[in-house]
Structure formats: structure tokens, C-alpha cells
Design goal:
Elements (H helix, E strand, L loop, with lengths): L2 H12 L5 H8 L3 H13 L19 E9 L4 H12 L4 E6 L6 E7 L2 H10 L7 E8 L14
Antiparallel strand pairs: 1-3, 1-4, 2-3
Helix pairs in contact: 1-2, 2-3
């Protein structure tokens, strides 16, 4: 990946709907080589897809909860089973396998406290192999970036 690829990625992170012509003008290439570079970046999995960034408050999911999960065992099978289970939960926005005393960190969205309670009782607490859960509610998001610092 060279400097032009990084500039393409940086521009597309700012505006994924940008036309190839506008992108080519912005980075100083003609459209055909620019399109070829984009196709290569997509084929190599560097660009994994395109999508809209949605305001979670505007769609009625203003509550963000971070949940530390401690598993009963940290075997590959237990971690894989947990991962399979939470992949099916649309409220789980992120799931990270962590180092340290707690095994997994989740970021979950909810409409309100009652909605979060239903998610816990009806979904997460029914996943086998969980030893302990600890939740923290985000009061406000101070920094949230979708764009990686590639340029």
C-alpha cells in the first residue's frame, strides 16, 4: 500500500459516496487508475465495504452500555461458543476478546434501562458459560471515530 492508496482510503473514509471522478481529482489521478486502485483495495480486503454512519440517538437507541464478561473457562471452545451466541444479538455493536481478569468486553445499545434489562434477562444471561457480568453505562461519548488515521 503506497501513499496514493492511503489518500484514497482517507478520502473514502470521509465520504464513501464520493464518485470515482471526484476522488481521482482530489488525489491527483485520472479516474481509470483510481478505479483500479479502489478495486484492488476492495479485493485485498483493505476496503471491506461501504455504509452509512447512523446516529444512535436519532433511531431511538440512546443508551450505550459496556459489559465486561467473565467466562467460566477460557478454552477455545467456550470462547467460540460465546462468540457464536453474541453474533446473533443485534444490540451487541462490538465484542472484544480481552487480556486481563475479564475475558470479553461488549458494547451494547438500548432504548432505555428497561430495554437493556430485557436484553440482559432474555438474551445475554441465557448464554451458557458465563461466570460474571459487570455493566457500565456511558454518560456521553467524548470521542468516536469511524475513520482510521491512514494518511
Amino acid at each position: 500500500m503506497d501513499a496514493l492508496d492511503r489518500r484514497i482510503i482517507a478520502s473514502l473514509q470521509r465520504d464513501g459516496r464520493m464518485s470515482v471522478t471526484d476522488l481521482a481529482d482530489e488525489i491527483g489521478l485520472s479516474p481509470t487508475p483510481c478505479a483500479r486502485r479502489i478495486a484492488r483495495l476492495e479485493a485485498e480486503g483493505i476496503i471491506r465495504g461501504y455504509g452509512a454512519r447512523i446516529d444512535q440517538n436519532a433511531v431511538g437507541l440512546p443508551v450505550s452500555v459496556f459489559i465486561w464478561v467473565e467466562l467460566e473457562t477460557q478454552s477455545k471452545e467456550a470462547v467460540d461458543a460465546f462468540e457464536r451466541a453474541v453474533r446473533g444479538f443485534d444490540r451487541v455493536m462490538e465484542c472484544h476478546l480481552m487480556t486481563g481478569s475479564r475475558d470479553i468486553l461488549l458494547r451494547v445499545v438500548a432504548a432505555d434501562l428497561a430495554d437493556f434489562d430485557r436484553f440482559l434477562e432474555e438474551r445475554l444471561m441465557r448464554v451458557p458459560g458465563i461466570r460474571a457480568l459487570r455493566s457500565s453505562f456511558a454518560l456521553r461519548t467524548m470521542v468516536a471515530r469511524a475513520a482510521l488515521p491512514v494518511a
